[in-house]
Amino acid sequence: MKKHILLFLFLVCGISAMAQNGLGFNQYILNSQLINPAYYNQRSPITVNLAGRYQWMDYPGAPNTIGLTGMYNINDHHTVGLTFSNDRVAKFNTFQASATYAYRLNLGDKVQLSFGAKVGYINQATIIDLSSLNNPNDPVFYPQKSINGLTLGAGLFFSGQRFFVGISAPNLFNNGLMKRGFSSNLSGNAYYLTAGYKVVNTKPFMFYPSLLISATEGAPIHGQFDLNFLIFNGVWINAGVSTEVATNIGIGYLFSNGFRIVYDYGFSFGRFNKYGSGIHEITLGYTKDLFQNEFAKRKYVNKKGSFQSYRKQHRRYK
């Protein structure tokens, strides 16, 4: 185990030499693919997730974010995925569409190290009603209306049955709205560190503390600590605090057919408390085990001439 940890820390130092202010969800555990291309679902080969975050809904131009992700574990080593996100603040809008790939190394004792990368398209735009300007062709506004660019990202995800640690730089190129064309400037990019440990890991009750730290050049470091609970493998409850003097509470349900829904409400005790309506998040997800069906219950004759279950053959997804 010590060798595995040292290997992971060495790779972390390499990625830290690379890494735009990225997306933020209170339910980051359920939306890990948006910030880390190396993330994969250990329990299911197919995962689809839709999340929305809405802040200070009573105020025009308040921030809102939507993210859609999907991934498929091809086998024990390869995972492919797609991510889509749209982030809007006042008159500024950022849209991304990316493809992700992760390669996993099995380090023994159900411990895996995943290397991830993503490539995609990004559009940053100012949504301005030019008809409201005295001069709609004013060069101060018109060239900034829309910028298209390439986005590249990288990450690592180190996990076992009871823990995970992830580090990522989801946007390595900073395509700023104040610049024309394509830019490869790394300043202002965001780096993420996530971690979690299952203190109690039983079927009727799971206790799962987790941590998120994000750093962006020129901005304060953001930290969030959460206590997560899964009761009877269905009821999801969590509570968290962050460095912005804010807290959040989430509740949801994981259905036996693979669907899940989680609602999260966040509010601040600091200078943003005057905005009142808080932060609302909702996450919808679906996970599918390809072998949880009637055919999977059948048996076949293996090379040794004995009967074996298809489900047993693919138990690695459990």
Mean pLDDT across all residues, rounded? 78
CATH hierarchy: architecture: Beta Barrel
Side by side, the strands of the main sheet go 1-2-3-4-5-6-7-8-10-11-12-13-14-15
CATH superfamily: monomeric porin ompg
Shape: globular
The helix-strand sequence is HHEEEEEEEEEEEEEEEEEH
Largest sheet: 14 strands, antiparallel, barrel
* Beta content: over 45%
Query: Helix content range of the residues, please?
Result: under 10%
Q: What low-confidence regions span 5 or more consecutive residues with pLDDT below 50? A: 2-21, 176-187, 290-301, 305-318
**CATH class annotation:** Mainly Beta
- Measured between the Cα atoms of the first and last residue, the distance is 22 Å
Number of individual domains? 1
Radius of gyration: 21 Å
CATH topology: Porin
Structural class by sheet pairing and helices? mainly beta
Keywords summarizing the entry:
318 residues; mainly beta; 14-stranded antiparallel barrel; 3 helices; globular; disordered N terminus; disordered C terminus
Give an overview of the whole structure.
With 318 residues, this protein is mainly β. It has a single domain, classed as Beta Barrel (Porin). It has helices spanning 2-15, 32-35, 310-313, and strands at 46-55, 64-73, 78-89, 92-108, 111-126, 146-159, 163-169, 190-197, 200-201, 205-216, 222-231, 235-242, 246-254, 259-268, 279-288, 299-301, 307-309. The strands form 2 sheets. The chain has a 14-stranded antiparallel beta barrel. Strands 16-17 form a two-stranded antiparallel ribbon. It is globular, with a radius of gyration of 21 Å. Mean pLDDT is 78; it is low at 2-21, 176-187, 290-301 and 305-318.
